[in-house]
Specification:
- Helix 4 crosses helix 5, helix 5 packs antiparallel against helix 9 and helix 7 crosses helix 8.
- The chain starts with 6 loop residues before the first helix and ends in a 7-residue tail after the last helix.
- By secondary structure, the chain is mainly alpha-helical.
- The longest helix is centred in the N-terminal third of the chain and has 21 residues.
- The chain is elongated and about 55 Å long.
- Helix content is 64%, strand content 0%.
- 29% of the residues are buried.
């Protein structure tokens, strides 16, 4: 469990890590380098976050959670169509892909979500439950489990499209508008597909 700590110190560490990741790439940046860049003692990352991985998770939540809170807050009443849910998921990623810092965030998010580690998100829209609830409102035949499983597959596909390392894409490049439209149509069809259960 992450200790309760000084938010100012946590933010200095997040800022330092983000700057170093942007300059050198995530793999090249050590915990020692983050502590030093923040002007803090060698144990600061472990004290404030628990591990380097948890620092990255906190960085992502701090920087990105509000993107989905704004768009999804409007979709709960009345129930959104599946295509609207996919648009709400993808639109912020399209915006991030236009900027170098945003592409860093996308790459880090893909690493976290597609990796073996299962993060413990605290922000509402970073978890599956609210997304599953909205999907079930649009597709009442789905069980909670099925809705979550479909979102897991959808998010994996979306992040594979958006989360390539910075070094893989040319500067300023993300998926083309046509590729994003195809992706959204494919994901929406998968989320809304019939369950196959006998009625």
């Amino acid at each position: 469990m992450t200790p309760v700590t000084d938010p100012g110190a946590r933010e200095r560490l997040l800022d330092a890590a983000e700057r170093l990741f942007l300059e050198s790439g995530c793999d090249a940046v050590s915990v020692r380098a983050i502590n030093a860049a923040a002007g803090m003692n060698p144990a600061a990352v472990h004290y404030h976050f628990g591990s380097r991985e948890q620092l990255i998770e906190a960085l992502l939540e701090t920087r990105l959670a509000a993107l989905w809170e704004r768009s999804l807050g409007e979709l709960s009443q009345p129930p959104a169509q599946v295509a609207e849910l996919v648009e709400a998921m993808v639109a912020p990623l399209t915006g991030l892909a236009k900027h170098r810092l945003g592409r860093l965030h996308l790459h880090l998010l893909a690493r976290v979500v597609l990796g073996d580690h299962r993060p413990e998100w605290t922000s509402r829209w970073f978890g599956l439950a609210p997304w599953a609830g909205l999907l079930r409102a649009a597709c009442p035949d789905l069980t909670v489990r099925e809705a979550k499983q479909r979102w897991v597959l959808a998010v994996q596909l979306i992040l594979q499209a958006f989360g390539a390392p910075q070094s893989v894409r040319p500067p300023g490049a993300g998926p083309s508008a046509a590729a994003v439209r195809r992706l959204c149509a494919f994901v929406a069809a998968g989320l809304a597909a019939p369950t196959g259960r006998a009625r």
